[in-house]
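User: My collaborator sent over this chain with a note saying "see what the structure looks like." That's all I know about it. Can you take a look?
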Amino acid sequence: MSAVFKSIAPRPAPVRTEGFVPWVRANLFGDWKSIATTLIILGLAFAFVPGIVSWGAVNAVFKPDADVCQAARGIGACWGVVTEKYRLIIFGRYPYEAQWRPEVATILLLALLVASCIRAFWRPSLVLLWVLVIPAFFVLMGGGMLGLDAVSTDQWGGLPLTIMLATFGIVLAFPLSVVVALGRRSDLPAIRSLCIVYVELIRGVPLISVLFMASFMFPLFMPVGKSPDVLIRVLVGITLFAAAYLAETVRGGLQAIPKGQIEAAQSLGLSYWQTQRKIVLPQALAMVVPGIMNNFIAIFKDTSLVTIVSLYELTGALSLALNSDADWRPFKIEGYLFITLIYFTFCFSMSRYSLWIEKRVSVSKTR
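Assistant: Without extra context I'll predict from the sequence alone. Here is the result:
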């Protein structure tokens, strides 16, 4: 019998699963709940976004003219307040003629932080960069050497002070938190009890009270004229407070490590510190990257509380800039939106870096 050829009906083309349209279909119009939520959000956007754009851009005043801004009140934003007061907001009470120094110091510190976050720079020379940049930062800010006029720490302020407190608060609090977390899991009752008391005592009070005690109460227990600088006392308070919260995050990661891995390390003859450094801590810290970054972001934002001890960081510098000038005082909303953008930029960058770390950790787990 001769074979009869029968053609197969063409199959439909595969549905695209990547790209903008498939993403919209899957995430915004996947089911009736997604469709309803999307329509509600679009309705709110059409209702409020035109007014916000009109206030913030179309009818806004960008010239540093207080009279024009007063005439535009209720109609458009006055971004002229930022143009007029940006130096005082960014640098606080630092002497005007020497404001290039905190600018250069902040750029150096930010460059160091960015380099520390890039994998290509993770080599021994990075330690040398820290050794060089940190003294350079304080020399530029404080002066008193190399021909630079001395500037007391109570005149430091604005964004440089915020970045400095957040950076050193994180750098000092993280290793302390690891030690405290290990101490809470120690078999020695004295060490375990000491760490528990420290964590519960610090977590039981707000940061503002810790700063108040570090600034005003601590000098009462010191000899007359022997009290450390207020900036050092505030930095110590932020470090101790942040370390207590970070310690609990790290302890959560330590508890997630199976006990069998520790017993296996002990059977191989590894000491306690070798086990922690090579087996336990790498896995524990990788598990709690989101929690650690959440604490880092909280530290960065909590620096705004140092205003109560007369250190005018970014938020305090804004209040100082506007409260001292009656002409620009009514435009605080625009000023706060400006520093909100600065805070958001730093916090969002930290969160994206945390996601990158999580992806790198997940890749190492799937190998």
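A starting point for your reply to your collaborator: The radius of gyration is 27 Å.
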